[in-house]
Design a protein that fits this description.
By secondary structure, the chain is mostly helical. Helix content is about 65%, strand content about 5%. It has a domain at about 35-160. It binds zinc ion.
């Protein structure tokens, strides 16, 4: 996949000492690669969305599937949140090493702070944060570069995808013939007179 300068620039951390807020670093063979601060920004955006989905998941499912059983679009939207939660967890587990995933699970999925994580995993504060940084970078890169659909950008994940197209194709949609269109009565609603 291709990274553009405008994308990395928008995501880069202004105070980053490696890229100075540009989001790009010189890579192998003179080609620029995205800076780690860009990957961390992507991970944090995905993680924020994950938490948001996880906190409202039950509520959304209930509303969309029970109160509105006939509304295709609403139920698709409800399932999308659940799909994102599942993707976030599965992709992370697949990307990280066993040891990294353990830290990820305690800190990001179960919400344990650094003190609890260090005690549980028998680590010191420095190596804990070093590992957390590396985890954020690896996952941010994977979330963005994943084929065919990444978890980032979020609006693409939630807005697009083939799923809605499939739903649309399966809907029995009556197609009007030319004759039917000509003879169709146009409904005229009484217009309110302007005062
Ligand atoms: Zn940077």
């Amino acid at each position: 996949m291709q990274w553009t300068r405008s994308e990395t620039l928008a995501l880069a951390q202004q105070s980053c000492t490696y890229c100075h807020g540009l989001g790009l670093r010189p890579g192998r063979g003179g080609a620029s690669t995205p800076c780690n601060c860009v990957f961390r920004a992507i991970f944090r955006a995905c993680y924020a969305r994950f938490r948001q989905c996880a906190s409202k998941e039950k509520y959304v499912s209930r509303v969309s599937l029970e109160a509105n059983p006939g509304r295709q679009r609403k139920s698709v939207w409800g399932l999308k949140n659940e799909e994102y939660i599942a993707d976030f967890c599965l992709v992370s587990q697949r990307t990280l090493s066993e040891r990294e995933y353990k830290i990820f699970k305690y800190h990001f999925l179960l919400g344990a702070d650094w003190k609890l994580c260090c005690r549980k995993l028998k680590m010191d504060r420095g190596s804990f944060f070093h590992d957390v940084y590396r985890i954020e970078q690896r996952l941010g890169k994977t979330f963005r570069e994943l084929e065919p659909y990444g978890l980032f950008p979020l609006d693409e994940y939630f807005g697009s995808t083939g799923k809605e197209k499939v739903v649309g194709a399966l809907m029995p949609f009556p197609i009007e013939s030319d004759d039917e269109r000509k003879t169709r009565t146009i409904l005229k609603f009484p217009l309110k007179e302007a005062a």
